[in-house]
Design goal:
Layout (H helix, E strand, L loop, with lengths): L1 E6 L2 H5 L2 H15 L3 E6 L11 E5 L2 E5 L9 H4 L7 E4 L4 H4 L17 H6 L4 H9 L1 H11 L11 H10 L6 E5 L9 H8 L1 H15 L3 E7 L3 H16 L8 E7 L8 H8 L23 E5 H13 L1 H5 L2 E2 L2 E2 L1 E8 L5 E6 L4 H8 L9 E6 L6 E3 L9 H6 L8 E6 L4 H15 L5 H18 L4 H18 L3 H5 L1 H10 L18
Parallel strand pairs: 1-2, 6-7, 6-9, 7-8, 12-16
Antiparallel strand pairs: 1-3, 3-4, 4-5, 10-11, 12-13, 14-15, 14-16
């Protein structure tokens, strides 16, 4: 029986995987060959999708990117073929990675609990129950794990706060509202290894004394939501979820601001998704006023490995205060787009040029935007920046959720700056004046600059407006929009019809 592995991930389906599999079935039938297909998560090698793996002699051989017209019997035989890329485990794009969070993605059926356990699943939860809540929190703290949703706040401190807070009930909330452009790690994990996230949330609930958890996803992720809901049912049947700790999946309507933790909590409570003023912090008074852990998918999914292997194994990886690995997501005009899990410490240039291979168009890289639509634009002159939280902050940048969007030299950075401000105005929840009104005025100011109207005065006004947004907004939506706007003007003045001299003093703080 020939074993074939093919991703059911959204990216592979969008690229035509179903048609490729139909062609494989026809070829197998015509050739009298028996074939067993396992639908897996994605390896993250998006430039090779649709990507099919055939097991031969215990080794998985890869073919891609495939179309239905490429399919012939050589693939089922594990033979040389124009789309043959060799043994999958030997591919440089995988060998260069340090896969911890995504170690199982692409290897197994995401809804097979038996396969999950066979590949090391549930070890972390069992170990957590041996250690006890206090030692689990101590291990998460010692690992140096920081929130992977953008803020980079130490996870252990947050858990310790919730554990020590007084309350008749406590909650664990997973922020799976992955709304940043160029990011797809949360979706990939929910589609490719959902039990890992469930296990991480169960450990968090055990550690802080919560009996209920919620995963807040977005409606634009139908396959991820279906897969995760099915995984919850399997988890209950296998005793991973029970009366001591249970989970529910809730799906939002796609508001970007609901990715902010307090707006997310408002939405979970059935209210309009608007930002809450802080304090109180959600760790003290969160969902329904109870102490609540709010972490994103990648943060919670990192925990089982930390507890299973020990804090030292995790903290030994990374750079500076940024410990462990980061699933970097490369998108935009890039030759080898996809997800690459590596320890913090590579430079931006090593990621974009080395891992990504430069632009798909073959033209020079002009800019990359890191950290989503509110992240700064970095020119090639800053490609020596080390990929970690502090190094990026020192250059007015953001790591964010790990997304990196690449642009070649045909991009108009003036239009990109305008887009960032317009995005803020459209997505604003309306709670605070700087974001609600300031973003609209910002679009108008940028339009005047691009039209060449009284440019020096308009640039000064834009700088002042950005400072107001940054210092006066209730959340990161308004507070971070100065990053893309001012970085675009600072590093690419010619796209605004400006000179370096006219930009004196205009920088994001």
């Amino acid at each position: 029986m020939i074993r074939v592995f093919a991703s059911r991930d959204s990216i592979s389906q969008a690229c035509g995987m179903d048609a490729v599999l139909e062609a494989l079935v026809r070829v197998a039938s015509a050739s009298g060959l028996g074939m067993q297909v396992t639908r897996t998560g994605s390896r993250g090698l998006h430039w090779l999708e649709p990507f099919v793996e055939v097991e031969k002699g215990g080794v998985r051989l890869g073919y891609g990117p495939l179309s239905a017209a490429d399919v012939d019997v050589r693939i089922l035989q594990g033979a040389v073929h124009p789309k043959f890329v060799g043994a999958v485990d030997d591919l440089p794009a995988l060998k260069l990675q340090t896969r911890m969070t995504f170690a199982r993605c692409g290897l197994l059926d995401p809804l097979s609990f038996v396969d999950h356990v066979a590949h090391g699943g549930m070890v972390g939860l069992a170990r957590a129950r041996e250690l006890g809540p206090a030692q689990v929190i101590e291990a998460v703290t010692a690992s140096g794990l920081r929130g992977r949703g953008g803020a980079g706040f130490p996870a252990g401190i947050k858990w310790k706060t919730v554990a020590g807070a007084k309350g008749a009930r406590k909650f664990v909330v997973c922020n799976a509202d992955e709304g940043d452009s160029g990011t797809f790690a949360d979706r990939m994990l929910m589609e490719g290894d959902p039990f890992l996230l469930i296990e991480g949330m169960a450990i968090a609930g055990f550690a802080v004394g919560a009996t209920k958890g919620f995963v807040y996803s977005r409606s634009e992720y139908p396959l991820a939501n279906r897969t995760f809901q099915a995984a919850l049912e399997v988890a209950r049947r296998n005793g991973l979820l029970d009366a001591e700790f249970d989970l529910e999946l809730r799906v939002g309507a796609g508001s970007y601001v609901c990715g902010e933790e307090t707006a997310l909590l408002e939405s979970l409570e059935g209210k309009r998704g608007q930002v809450r003023a802080k304090p109180p912090l959600p760790a003290i008074a969160g969902l329904f006023g109870a102490p609540t852990v709010v972490n994103n998918v990648l943060t919670l999914a990192s925990v089982p490995r930390i507890i299973a292997d020990g804090a030292q194994a995790y903290s030994s990886l990374g750079y500076g205060r940024s410990r462990g690995t980061m699933p970097v997501q490369l998108a935009g005009n890039v030759k080898r787009g996809g997800l690459f899990e590596v320890p913090f410490g590579l430079t931006l240039g090593q990621i974009v040029d080395g891992i990504g291979g430069g632009t798909a168009s073959g033209r020079p890289v002009k800019a990359v935007q890191c950290g989503g639509p509110l992240g700064a634009y970095f020119p090639r002159a800053l490609f020596d920046t080390v990929y970690d939280y502090e190094s990026f902050a020192a250059r007015d940048g953001l790591i964010g959720h790990g997304g990196i969007v690449v642009f070649d030299d045909s991009v108009d950075m003036g239009r990109q700056a305008r887009f960032a401000m317009e995005f803020c105005s459209i997505e604003s929840c309306g709670k605070c004046t700087p974001c609600r009104v300031g973003s609209v005025r910002g679009v108008e100011v940028i339009d005047r600059i691009l039209a060449g109207q009284d440019v020096p005065a308009q640039v000064a006004l834009l700088k002042e407006l950005c400072e107001t947004l940054k210092l006066g907004s209730l959340c990161a939506l308004g507070g971070f929009v100065p990053y893309p706007v001012l970085s675009a003007i600072t590093h690419f003045p010619a796209d605004f019809g400006l000179t370096d001299v006219s930009l004196k003093g205009v920088h994001a703080r």
